Amino acid sequence: MCFILRIVAICASVIGFGWASTAQAATLSTTCNLGVDVALSITVNSNINFATVKAGTADTYTISTAGVVSHAGSGAELYGTPAAGNLSIVGSTTRTINISVGNYGSNNGVTLQSATCNYNSGGSGTCALNGVAAPGAGKTLLLGVQAVVDGTQTAGTSAAPTFDVTVVYP
Amino acid sequence: MQKNIHTKLIISIALGLVTGAIFLPSAWAACVATCAVTENAKMDFATVEKPSSGSVTYTIAADTGTTSGTAVVLYGTAARGAYTATRTGATTGCTGTTFTVSNANTGDAGITLGTFKVSYNGGGQRASPSTLAGTYPATTGTVFRIGGTATYTSSANTGAITPSLDVTCTIN
Predict the structure, then answer these.
(1) Which residue of A has its CA nearest to B81?
(2) Looking at chain B, which terminus has fewer C-beta neighbours within 10 angstroms, N or C?
(3) pTM exceeding the 0.90 threshold for the entire prediction
């Protein structure tokens, strides 16, 4: 009888231990997203050059991305060596880019418009290029443009109108 | 001899009852609720410019999702992580819930993740581990969001990575 009571007493304490409170945790092992890349940069290797054209005559001149000048009216290309614009773009080796132009300016009666682009030898076209090849260590962008000449220019003067080329990661 | 046996018996009963008395109250108030975590959206630090020297940081707030820091974002959209904690069981005997973000590993010695924050059920962000006394996820699920800080040094490799981390819900 005494033995039985002792067992009961010990069991009571064991049960007490067995029911102690514990924290209930759940862990989700997951991931997040993160990236590091190179900022885009543009280097101008050479500006667009229409060379020398006829003074005092209104006309619209076009230079192609191949550097060939033509005109629509009574003007004329006189001398000098024309050149397309030549830019180098550096950036990500994996991320595609968008190229655009804008902010056409005027100078000395010459106004620019309708630029054309040839990026990475992909062919000439409008400068609204979206999702084109990642530039990596450097890819070439050739530029052409139209120059609207108002005919007020005197012989021996020059004009240096500008426009912007913008490159972004989409 | 018989007196000695009776003394031992009395002591044994007394010890047993006292020990039981100490632990039985917690037995009756044991916390049996459990918590499960599911992922709604991963935390996203977008893609930042690799620093040319030194280090830069980029922080996402857990409560608002706003970003801050010295890193320059090149592309992508940063976002806090979103998770759902779902409770099972009654909360009798429980004291609260702890949310923890831990064990982050980027796999890139030039990039570290830390200073994690937790925003529970639309509340303000709190540092991880965040213990909310008397608060428990709903049995239908309660959303909590996480944020943190990424630190990039000039030795970081370019490219996209998916660092690992643990998100834990503990009902105490």
Answers:
(1) A32
(2) N
(3) no
Residues of A in contact with B39 (CB under 8 A): 28, 30
CB contact under 8 A, B23 and A17: yes
Cβ separation A38–B50 shorter than 8 A: yes
Residues of A in contact with B107 (CB under 8 A): none
Spacing of C-alpha B35 from chain mean position: 12
Q: In whole angstroms, what is the distance from residue B26 CA to residue B20 CA? A: 10
Contact yes or no for A13 and B26 at CB 8 A:
no
DSSP strands (E only) in chain A: 24-31, 33-37, 41-46, 52-53, 59-63, 69-71, 77-79, 85-90, 97-102, 106-107, 110-119, 125-126, 129-132, 139-149, 164-168
Left, alpha or beta for A110 (phi > 0: left; psi -120 to 50: alpha)?
A: beta
Do A31 and B162 make contact, defined as CB atoms within 8 angstroms? yes
Q: For residue A47, what are its two tokens?
A: 């500006």
Model pLDDT for residues B69-108, shown as the tens digit of each residue: 999 999 999 999 999 999 999 999 999 999 999 999 999 9
Strand residues in B42-163 grouped as ranges (E): 44-49, 55-60, 67-69, 73-75, 81-88, 96-105, 111-120, 125-127, 130-133, 142-153, 159-161
From chain B, the residues in CB contact with A12 under 8 A are 16-17, 19-20
What are the pLDDT digits (tens) for A71-128? 999 999 999 999 999 999 999 999 999 999 999 999 999 999 999 999 999 999 999 9
- Helix residue ranges, H only, chain A: 2-18
d(CA B47, CA A160): 38
